[in-house]
């Protein structure tokens, strides 16, 4: 049986830009558009030409994209003609394949927010769609406040949607603008709309204010809608938008949807999903959500020993899909609660084959429990556990030795008379028979220590060129004069691989140094550096 085509429309570059703390540059928008195109998204909404310099410049750029690049903006303003509306003119002249208009579809919003009549709002929709069609653009209409409008006055909400469809709009998109509609309501209302407008011209735009934007998107599909709008990682104002990173693999991998629908995302592109999700977070300079479905570091992580035993025998026991199909990987966590099964499973994952009755396994488990009792957290620090296991098995070369390090923080006036705080670190390293001394400044003591430590490692320098720190987390484990600090450092290399290391000490610099050392040594082991 032929499958129906379901279309994906991404609004990260506009809705995502409304997220608190997110501010895309032109370079960001072009890079993210390229990622979305590579993923196979059908429509990428770039922004609002004329609303700000970045979006105006974006739509003036020549782009080599296979996706339908879309401009967003308002229908003509009430009381103005199409030819006398600068905002509409900017939309019509934008270098875009399609235009997505937004219009009120709630009679209350028309009266209160726009201060106009219902008929004038309908005329504005008709005139704008007609003008865009005349320009040769594919046209979409976002029916803002549609679900609330439908609950209050279904005839008028439908009239707005139908006005756009009758004038030739390719898609009429029903927006749950305040995110308050529930899945059963979405399905019922979309079903009613699809009796008036064909479902293959109906889309859904859900906000996440009740944590149900993804569920509402699927409810709309069950109701007949054939376009889903959303953002990467669920970015968006307030609580965010429907998360395409969760929607895409569900459509691809869950039989209920995969048997009925096809989407533009190929199996090969699906394997890049985790990488693309993390790349967006990296561009935004924020840590990825470790617990994000499908792509989070913990999405396929198992801690309890009884679960680990089952996973060794049959991974599908506790995994609803294979992690590799979305570019993720299985993790069997090792902690003080773990059993031998967890340790064996993790050793197998990192490529160490050990007999299950080897006495070193029990010793390794004892060491983990002893160290976690004083504050180490190996379930959160996969690379540090890897090294601990290898050291227990005698498989970590003695690459180099740090004989001494010194870190100073100084506050002083710079050359232009500004008072600045500067951190400097000096590290003495022995590599084979060579003694090396490196110094570096940083924007803090840990950054300075990291820069100095990686400045010159002699024959190992080429192995760590692509290494960088992507996250730094500190936790005080107890209070008072006996306080102990735990530092977790997340690192990344040129291949895009990420790993986490841990250090524990009453002194935050010492704890950071432990984690930094583990990060560098793990990179050398990972790269196969010779002793």
TrEMBL record:
Superkingdom, taxonomy of origin: Bacteria
Secretion signal span: none
Keywords: Amino-acid biosynthesis, Branched-chain amino acid biosynthesis, Isoleucine biosynthesis, Transferase
Catalytic activity: pyruvate + acetyl-CoA + H2O = (3R)-citramalate + CoA + H(+)
Residue ranges occupied by any Pyruvate carboxyltransferase domain in the UniProt entry: 6-271
UniProt pathway: Amino-acid biosynthesis; L-isoleucine biosynthesis; 2-oxobutanoate from pyruvate: step 1/3
GO BP of this protein: isoleucine biosynthetic process; L-leucine biosynthetic process
Enzyme Commission number(s) from the entry: 2.3.3.21
GO molecular function term, any single one: (R)-citramalate synthase activity
NCBIfam families hit by this protein: citramal_synth
Family from the record: Belongs to the alpha-IPM synthase/homocitrate synthase family.
Protein name: Citramalate synthase
Gene source species: Pseudolabrys taiwanensis
Taxonomic lineage of the native organism: Bacteria, Pseudomonadati, Pseudomonadota, Alphaproteobacteria, Hyphomicrobiales
